[in-house]
């Protein structure tokens, strides 16, 4: 790989891709790393270089199309690691994965599509190991804060965790004159297709893990509409990839390191009860519509209507994105004493609770781009701290023993211990 570019950004002309290029210009320059950009249209790629990387000497422009296998191989052969921003990944992701394995190129992406991620692990984990390459999905806001937040919590717990409940909260400090969508159309499109095929996930998970985990007690039950002591507002189960990815990470920790896996639940929290009620009603309508092709077509045709303006065919308002903030609060329950074997059972009730938090600003595209670039850089620099010699991994499995959390902290993502209480 000595003569390759350090990083190639595929899908560089898309909304997310442009953010990745913008941040790569200074993040790679500071580390004396070379990057190139790739996509279907040279004119559009040249325009991206002119807009975001004009002060960088010689940013290679590579033509590649997901429908052209040879062009993908030529692209991936140019890179030590590929950052894939070309979604929905359900339709466009697999050919890129195959090309990376064929050319022995590491891979990261920004998807939050559960079906795609599990299917890629099923199909290509062994091939990636044989090729000696790491393939890590969900390296953006989906699902770096939640998965690495769990790893951070497990590191700080000093005992044995039984369960972690995660409360996600997003809010805006925008003034009333700042309007516009928060999500671009491709993000909405990916979410609609992912929700519409949610029934595929359980069957794929059974194929991926034919042997079930031992039953751990006390069993964590999912709470429906509720108020928690650790966050202000109303919370409900959140239909995102965060829990799915976290459970795969926990399974990896059990299989690889014989570590007791934490039971996980993820909730979305909204402070105002009226806003919460409107969100629940809107979410139920969307879930119903995603169950049929007709409903999905309606959602895709009228994103602003069905998302209450959060998604649109128009590009998001950059000022709105800058004024958006997030926090993930982790409520971990367990024991002060760690038993010798992961399968050993505690005879007493949990006697310790730890609260941690991951928080930051502009989570959508700005922070996602920084997270995926840092993930790529970590793979290039710290394979000695990563498991196996490659494979299809979750962020927590891939980066749990690397410096990625420390690097995120340097880029204004706060990881903090809130409290630790022993009974």
Automatic annotation (TrEMBL):
Q: Which GO terms describe its cellular component?
A: lipid droplet; mitochondrion; plasma membrane
Q: Which residues cross the membrane?
A: none
Q: Which stretches make up the Saccharopine dehydrogenase NADP binding domain?
A: 7-136
Instruction: Output the InterPro entries linked to this UniProt entry.
Output: NAD(P)-bd_dom_sf (IPR036291), Saccharopine_DH-like_oxidrdct (IPR051276), Sacchrp_dh_NADP-bd (IPR005097)
**What are the GO BP annotations of this UniProt entry?**
glycolipid biosynthetic process
The family line of this record is:
Belongs to the saccharopine dehydrogenase family.
Know the name of this protein? Putative saccharopine dehydrogenase
């Amino acid at each position: 790989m000595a003569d390759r570019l350090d990083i190639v950004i595929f899908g560089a002309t898309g909304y997310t891709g442009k953010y990745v290029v913008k941040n790569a210009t200074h993040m790679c320059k500071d580390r004396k790393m070379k990057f190139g950009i790739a996509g279907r249209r040279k004119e559009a790629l040249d325009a991206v270089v002119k807009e975001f990387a004009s002060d960088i000497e010689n940013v290679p422009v590579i033509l590649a199309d997901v429908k052209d296998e040879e062009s993908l191989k030529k692209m991936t052969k140019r890179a030590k690691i590929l950052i894939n921003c070309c979604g929905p990944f359900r339709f466009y992701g697999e050919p890129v994965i195959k090309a990376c394995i064929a050319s022995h190129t590491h891979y990261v992406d920004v998807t939050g599509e559960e079906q795609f991620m599990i299917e890629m692990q099923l199909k290509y984990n062994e091939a990636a190991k044989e090729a000696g390459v790491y393939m890590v999905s969900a390296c953006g806001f989906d699902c770096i804060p939640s998965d690495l937040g769990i790893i951070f919590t497990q590191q700080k717990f000093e005992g044995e965790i039984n369960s972690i409940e995660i409360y996600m909260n997003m809010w805006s400090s925008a003034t009333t004159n700042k309007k516009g969508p928060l999500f671009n159309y491709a993000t909405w499109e990916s979410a609609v297709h992912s929700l519409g095929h949610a029934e595929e996930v359980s069957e794929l998970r059974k194929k991926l893990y034919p042997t079930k985990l031992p039953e751990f007690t006390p069993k964590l039950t999912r709470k429906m509409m509720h108020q928690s002591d650790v966050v202000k507002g109303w919370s409900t189960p959140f239909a995102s990839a965060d829990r799915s990815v976290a459970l795969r990470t926990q399974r990896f920790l059990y299989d690889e390191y014989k570590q007791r896996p934490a039971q996980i639940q993820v909730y979305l929290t909204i402070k105002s009860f009226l806003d919460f009620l409107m969100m629940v009603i809107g979410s139920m309508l969307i879930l119903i519509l995603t169950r049929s092709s007709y409903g999905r077509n309606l959602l895709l045709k009228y994103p602003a209507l069905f998302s209450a303006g959060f998604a649109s065919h128009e590009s998001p308002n950059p000022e709105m994105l800058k004024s958006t903030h997030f926090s993930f609060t982790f409520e971990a329950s367990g024991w002060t004493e760690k038993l010798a074997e992961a399968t050993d059972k505690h005879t007493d009730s949990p006697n310790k609770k730890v609260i941690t938090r991951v928080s930051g600003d502009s989570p959508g595209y700005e922070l996602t781009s920084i997270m995926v670039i840092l993930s790529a850089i970590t793979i290039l620099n710290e394979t000695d701290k990563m498991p196996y010699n490659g494979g299809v991994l979750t962020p927590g499995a891939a980066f749990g023993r690397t410096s990625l959390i420390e690097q995120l902290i340097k880029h204004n993502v706060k990881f903090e211990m809130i409290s630790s209480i022993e009974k």
